[in-house]
C-alpha cells in the first residue's frame, strides 16, 4: 500500500493520505483517489474480523449506507484480516452494498495516526499502554446480546461464542498478542480532508469497543453533503 505515515491522530482539517488496498467485496484495488474530487467518504478502520466488536461495527456502518448515499457520501470498511480470509467470511456472512478492503499490515491505521495499544500489568500511558486493571474496569453494554455490562475481554469471549466464530491461522497472524490496534471512523470531504472523526483514542479509552453515535455522524455528514 502507499501511505505517508504520520505521528499524530488525524483531526478535522487534516488531509488524509492516499492509499491503495486490496478490495474484499470485489476484485482489484481500492484507492482514496477513486473518491477524491467525486464524493465525500466515510472510512471505518477496524481490527480484523476476529474482533467481535468490529464485526458488529462493520454491520452497523453498512446499515447507515442508504442514508449516507442519499447525501452523496460513499462508505469504505477497512479490516486487518487478510483478503482471502475476509472474502470467505463475507461469502458466508454477506452484508448488502458493503465496500470493503483488506489491510493486514495496518498501514492505513498508522497513516491515520491510530496507535497499537500495549496491555500491561498495571501501567497506563494512554493511548500507547493500558493496565489490565483499567481494562477490567471498563464496561461494554450490548442489551439483548450481553446479560449485563461487562469488561471487554469477557464481553468479547461471550460474543465470539454467540457468533460461533472459529479462529483460523489467518486470523491468528493479525491478532496482536498482548496488544490491540485502536480503531476509528473518519469522514472525509470530496477533497480528502478530514471533517469529522470518532476513534478509540479519545477520552482515555472511554470509547474502546464502543459503537459510534449515528446522530453525530449524520449531523456531520449533512454539513458536507452534495
UniProtKB/TrEMBL annotation:
Domain Thioredoxin: 10-226
A GO term for molecular function: antioxidant activity
Bilayer-spanning residue ranges: none
Domain of life: Bacteria
Short name of one Pfam family: AhpC-TSA
Gene3D superfamilies, per database record: Glutaredoxin
InterPro entries: AhpC/TSA, Thioredoxin-like_sf, Thioredoxin_domain
The protein's name: Thioredoxin domain-containing protein
The organism of origin for this protein: Rhizobium mesoamericanum STM3625
Amino acid at each position: 500500500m502507499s501511505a505517508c505515515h504520520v505521528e499524530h491522530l488525524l483531526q478535522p482539517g487534516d488531509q488524509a493520505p492516499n492509499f491503495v488496498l486490496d478490495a474484499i467485496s470485489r476484485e482489484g484495488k481500492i484507492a482514496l483517489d477513486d473518491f477524491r474530487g467525486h464524493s465525500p467518504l466515510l472510512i471505518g478502520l477496524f481490527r480484523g474480523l476476529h474482533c467481535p466488536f468490529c464485526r458488529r461495527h462493520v454491520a452497523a456502518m453498512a446499515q447507515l449506507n442508504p442514508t449516507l448515499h442519499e447525501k452523496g457520501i460513499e462508505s469504505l470498511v477497512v479490516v486487518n484480516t487478510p483478503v482471502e480470509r475476509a472474502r470467505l467470511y463475507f461469502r458466508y456472512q454477506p452484508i448488502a452494498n458493503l465496500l470493503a478492503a483488506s489491510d493486514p499490515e495496518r498501514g492505513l491505521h498508522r497513516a491515520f495516526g491510530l496507535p497499537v495499544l500495549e496491555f500491561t500489568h498495571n501501567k497506563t500511558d494512554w493511548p500507547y499502554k493500558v493496565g489490565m486493571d483499567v481494562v477490567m474496569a471498563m464496561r461494554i453494554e450490548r442489551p439483548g446480546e450481553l446479560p449485563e455490562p461487562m469488561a471487554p475481554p469477557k464481553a468479547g469471549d461471550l460474543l465470539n461464542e454467540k457468533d460461533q466464530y472459529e479462529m483460523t491461522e489467518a486470523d491468528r497472524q493479525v491478532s496482536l498478542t498482548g496488544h490491540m490496534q485502536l480503531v476509528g471512523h473518519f469522514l472525509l470531504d470530496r477533497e480528502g480532508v478530514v471533517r469529522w472523526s470518532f476513534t478509540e483514542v479519545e477520552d482515555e479509552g472511554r470509547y474502546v469497543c464502543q459503537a459510534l453515535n449515528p446522530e453525530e455522524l449524520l449531523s456531520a455528514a449533512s454539513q458536507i453533503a452534495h
